[in-house]
Write the C-alpha cells for this entry.
Amino acid sequence: MSTEPGHADGPRPRSAGDGVEAGEMTPYLWGLLAMLASATFFDGFDVAILATVAPFVQQQYALDDGQWGLVVGVARIGAVISFFVLVFADRYGRRLLITLTILGYALFTGLTAMSASIEGFTFYQLAARIFLASEFALALIIIGEEYPTRWRGFGIALLSGVAAVGTIVAFVAAGWVLEHYDWRTMYLIGLIPLGLIFFFRLGMRETRRFEEIARERGAQTWSEMWTHMKVPFTAPYRSRTLLVTLIWNCNHLVTSPATTFWTIHAVRNLGYSAAQYGAVVAVGYLAGFVLGAPLAGFLLNRVGRRWTCAGFYAAAAVAIFALFWVDSSDMLLQMTLMSLTVVSFLGANAATNTYATELFPTAIRATGYSWTTNLFGRVMEFATPALIGLIAVEIGIPGAVGFMSIGPILGALVVLAYAPETRGLTLEEIEAGLRARH
C-alpha cells in the first residue's frame, strides 16, 4: 500500500478521498485564503462596529441596558436566519453562494448608516448579519474542504483569527471617527472595500469535493433538497448534531457579550473615552490575531482537537470573568486582561469551527453546519445579550457577565466526554470512523 506524508503520527495510508484531497499547499490555496479572509474580516468588523457605537446609539435613542440588550439580541438573530441561505450551498455550490452573500451584506450595511429610527437600525443590522454569517460559514467550509489534512486545522484557525483584524480596524477607526463624526460614519467606512472584494472573489473555484458530489448525484429537486435537510437528524449524524449545537451554545454564553457590553462597562465604570476603550480592544484583538489564531492552529494539530477545544473553553471562562470584575482603570492592566480574553475566545472559536466543519460529510456539510452553528447553535448568542441586559439592571454588567461565565466550563466538560479526536485524519477517514463507532 502506498503512502503519503501529512498524518499527525507518521505517513498516512492512501484511502477514500485521495482523489479530492490536496497533497500540498499550492499558490491557488494560499490565494484562496486571501479571497476568503474578507468574510471573517467583516464578521469581526461588523460586530465591532456595533460595540463601538453602542454608547452613542444608546444615548441617541434613550435606551437602558435592557433595551440595548434586546437590540443586540434581535440583530444577532440574523445569524440564525442565515440557516435559510446556507443550506442552498449543498444544492448550488459554495462559490455561487459566497459571492452573493457579500452583495447582501453591503446593501444592508449601507442602509444601517441611513436608518432613521432604532427599529430601522435593528432591522438593517439583522439583515446584514444574515448574509455575513452565511459568508463566514461558507469561508470555513471551503477551507475545510480544500486544504490538505495537515493544514486544515491551521487554515480554519487562521481564517477565524482574521476576524480579530476586522475588530482592530473598527476600534482604531472608531477612536478617531467618533470624536469627529456621527456614529453612522462607521457603517459607511465598511462599504469602501466591498466592491474590490467582490471582483477579487471571481477568481475562486468550486471546491473539488463538492464538484465530485454534484457529478455523482446530479441536480437536486426541491423534494430531494427537503429530504437532504433532515439528514443531520438521522442516525448516525444525530449525536454529532447535538454535540456541536451544545458546545456552540456554551461558547456563546460569554463570547457574544464580550465587546458589546465591555465598551458600556468601560465608559460607565472605568471612565474611558471612545479612544481609550478603542485602544484597549484593538490591543486585545491584535494579541488575539498574533497569538491566538496561530496557537490554536498549532495545538489543534499537535495536542489534538479535544484537549485544545476544552482548554480554550476553560481559559475563556476565567479570562472574561477577570476582565469584567477587575475594577481598575489602568489601561495596561485592561489591555492585558482583554488580550487574554480574546486569545482564549479566538482559540475556542477556531476549535469549535473545526469540529463543525469536520464532523459532517461533504454532501451535507453546509446543511449540518447551518443546523448546528447558524441555527440551533446560536440560540444563546442572541439570547445572552438580552439576558445580560435584564440581569444587569438588577446587579450590574460585571455581575451579569460573571454569572454567564459558567457556560464555557460546561462546554469543556461536554467536549472531553463526547467529542471524537479527528487530528491527522482526512474528511473521508473521519466520516468512516464515525460511522464505524455508530
In short: Residues 27-60 form the longest helix (34 residues). The chain has one domain: 21-437. The CA atoms of residues 93 and 426 lie 21 Å apart. DSSP finds 21 helices and two strands in the chain.
